[in-house]
Design goal:
It is built from 13 helices and 15 strands. The strands form four sheets. A seven-stranded parallel β-sheet has the order 3-2-1-4-5-8-12, with helices on both faces. Strands 9, 11, 13 and 15 form a four-stranded mixed β-sheet that branches. The longest helix is centred in the N-terminal third of the chain and has 22 residues. Bound molecules: nicotinamide-adenine-dinucleotide (NAD). Nicotinamide-adenine-dinucleotide binds next to α1, α5, β5 and β9.
Length: about 350
Amino acid sequence: MTSPVLVTGGAGFIGCNLADRLAQEGHDVLVLDALARPGVEQNLRWLQRRHPGRVSARIADIRDEDAVAEAVADARAVFHLAGQVAVTTSMTDPRTDFDVNLRGTFLLLDALRRRGDAVPLVFASTNKVYGDLQDVRLERHGERYLPADAALRESGVGEARPLDFHTPYGCSKGAADQYVLDFARSFGLPATVLRMSCIYGPHQMGTEDQGWVAHFLIRALKGEAITVYGDGCQVRDVLHVADAVEAYLRAWRRIGEVAGRALNLGGGPANAVSLREVIAHIDALTGRPVTVGYDAWRAGDQRWYVSDTRAVTQALGLDAPRSWRAGIADLAAWLGARASVEAA
Ligand SMILES: NC(=O)c1ccc[n+]([C@@H]2O[C@H](COP(=O)([O-])OP(=O)(O)OC[C@H]3O[C@@H](n4cnc5c(N)ncnc54)[C@H](O)[C@@H]3O)[C@@H](O)[C@H]2O)c1
């Protein structure tokens, strides 16, 4: 095996899509994952079946200092995606959230620092670093909220927006995001941060707590009801995982230009969509309306969040992402095909 690319959280949704692409491009890949998320062992099996001998796995916790140091030892690049991913879980167990997301990231950074030979690192951060955007005045237009401010409505939230960590998840990811940027500044680590909005696509084990696009589709395809927290008019800019993976790879290739920078990565204003609009699209795709129940808003939930993707597009030379309608249809087809294999 040549010097591998390390993907922490490589059994997870984004991680396995990234590992798959890396292996397709001829890289040896080392996945470090605790298999903490139910179902992700299927992703790992899929990866290893597709790329025999190319993808190896270290089943270990990101908080295991020795395992992390070993995994980092001869990595040629590191993509850090392992994490506690749900805001809801961070509210019930803030200690684990802190430990995994902040201490785990610190251990990884410190192992890289001690290696001392400038290994590129790309970190999966989140739009939650900008808080719940309570100060943004919103108007309701049909089935969605939109900012009253025309410039914000057209361009989305840029990287100059002040940080404002809300919820333990926002704090742990936000602090980790700052540590990554500081290790670039203080120790010259070639490290960059991608602050992601909602990513969706194949291999997402979407649940009510995280991965709502896949969760809605899975429920709809099974004929089960969906609970929407809030009024469903909240807006997100959704991005297909293939486009996210492209950005991760380019961030590595262009690490000299983007080291020390944080970039917002999402579908941008062209793919800004409300939960209700996604549900209507799912109804059209499945040919029957899904039953929707409504419950109270959840902590820190942004009524509107859309990434300003101009900086990431320019810095990484990205093409326009696939449209949300086509992307969700693609995910529905993938889920349908998987369900028929399981039923066979
Ligand atoms: N999916 C999104 O829309 C989105 C948006 C913003 C940020 N992110 C970030 O991107 C990363 C990947 O998210 P995802 O959607 O692929 O989630 P995911 O849950 O599918 O993947 C995370 C992986 O990390 C692993 N993991 C969890 N705890 C671990 C631990 N203690 N040690 C080692 N591995 C552990 C899980 O088993 C899982 O395979 C996360 O860091 C998440 O915070 C995701």
